[in-house]
Amino acid sequence: MPRNLGARVVKQLCRDLENKVYHVFFDNYFNCVHLLEDHKQSQIYGYGTVNSTRRNKPTFLTDKQMKRRNFNYFVSDSGLLAVKWKDKKSVHLLSNYHNPQHWPSEQKK
């Protein structure tokens, strides 16, 4: 399988959306750090799950260190938000438009 195929497909499909302030949602096959950085410069905002083994992500707390319904996040210098949410299993998210200051520290049922 070619390297970065998912990111290349998304860039091709979003070509006509550049500088028009759109929001695009991805699943873990397509989402990656360099795609969201490129899209942010083009005013295309994206959010979605990301594979936990994807490159260029920060090092999160381990599953054993996190309690259920807690999360750990990082914000890059370029404004990307990387989140690890722990429930029964861990979910990793990447976004180039969410502000972590608006997130509660823990969700309640």
TrEMBL record:
InterPro entries: PGBD
Organism: Rhamnusium bicolor
Protein name per Swiss-Prot or TrEMBL: PiggyBac transposable element-derived protein domain-containing protein
PiggyBac transposable element-derived protein domain location: 6-101
PANTHER family: PIGGYBAC TRANSPOSABLE ELEMENT-DERIVED PROTEIN 4
Classification via Pfam families: DDE_Tnp_1_7
